[in-house]
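Notes from the pairing session

We agreed to fold both candidates in a single pass and log them together. This is the raw record for the first candidate, unedited. Please don't reformat it; downstream parsing expects exactly this layout.

Candidate A
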Amino acid sequence: MRKILILFIIFCITIINAKSDYYKNLEYQYNIKKYDRLRVYLDCSIGNLIMKPSNNKYIITGNIDYNSTLAKPIVKLTNKGNISRLDLKIKADKIIKSDNKSLVNSLIEDGNDNYKINFEMPTKISTDMNLNFGLGKVDLDFTGIRIAQLIINCGLSDVTLINTKSNIINCENIHIATGISDFNSTGLGNFNSSNYSFDVGMGSAEIDMSGSANKNSNLKIDVTVGSLELKLPKNTNIELLIEKNMLSSVNVKGLISSGDGKYTSKDIRERWSTMKVEISVGLGSADIRIE
């Protein structure tokens, strides 16, 4: 019995060591203190991403664990004048020849874990985010990051987006396409943007517009065949217009209906900001409530 146990331990160690030979770690650090603005372009066809605020106000730090039999991630920082640009691209479309593992086997066995991406973003610089995801799991925490513009294409990825602190700069635009993924959010009103737009495809979207926004805003949501759960902020004058057809399912709570798909807040106050909301629902469903 003892010999069998020893052989089993040796076998496990061999498997672990063999697997570790395929995985490499890349580390990055960029100081962008001398720039006035940061633009981030991230294109990941596959992988699991965690992005959150950095403890250092002007430093980008990151690390990527990846399967070295697949294509190496491309990460670079460039600049044009006083604007810096971070590019990150992951395309699992290349294989390094190996006797033990093929590209197909790698993708089947390890899936999204072939690429594990972690980045911490600076909090003292105006930042544009343009994020494009394929297949994976994405956790985004933009609390304290100065977001000037945010564009996300979720693709096939399950995406979680949170922002628990009011943005201290003006945010030009928030546009998110949920694809066929599950999209979950918290505190999107904290981005303090004038314009929000969402395309809800075949997946589900939980859109939480709560936060401490203090200016008028427009929110537009198109639901194709997916499902929407929308939480609207309290202490805000809401003007809601819904377009739907006979195959749509729409439920509205906490607002007063005036007919023809029009709803307003029960309590309207002059000192509050106003959020104008337009929702179009095709074959999908929408549940709308006040926080």
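Candidate B (folded immediately after A)
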Amino acid sequence: ADEKITLLVNFHTQPGAAEEAWVENQLGGLVKYNYQLIPAMAIVVSTDQIGAVVEHPNVSVVEEDGVAYVDDINNTWGVKEIGGGLAHNLGQFGAGVTVGLIDTGLDYTHPEVAHVYLGGYDFVNDDADPMDDHFHGTHVTGTIAALRDNTGVVGVAPDIQMWVAKGFNAAGSGDYSDLIACVEFVSLQGCDVVNNSWGGGGSYTLRMAFEASQAAGVIHICASGNNFSLGGVSAPARYDSTYAVGAMESLF
């Protein structure tokens, strides 16, 4: 059987019905995503069709789909360390701010974070239920917005509201093609700030998605990866269109 490959295909102009028909009818492939945020598609074709994809006159850049991974997390002593209490003392709790989460999903039934959940989408399983089957996304959301209820931790901004884009599976890995769809989703929901506690190798198409999202007014906060001696800041934190955040050492 022909080996299948998922390609991220960038076009000179926004691909539409003609390009979708070309993929499905002429190449015998499948359109996984036709992105609206950027002029690109994620497609699945047999490897012997790669040449035909590259030679299409409207195609600019073609790359293979890749994988990113959620970054390790620890407890939220950092909320205090970054001066979160100072903002809280001034009555700043994030009211009116819409946050996007691109992660493993969210346990939106958890009593500490249920209050922030506006809705979301699961791009791993292609359904409208971004329930967290890992734990990472729920933990991150606790850091961002855990309730002020005098129990457990309190989040940096407990009065925000959140859209959830699940792009990572139960093992904590996610395909670039799904993560680009996540960036598009949070952008279309009008999120003010988006949390990206994950990283991987570079991808041209992913970078284009973050640039388009930034141009639409979205602030993307990304984990630097804490690998300074192992190749420096990871993507997407290293992109010009995002803000990289790294770890501080606990001094006590």
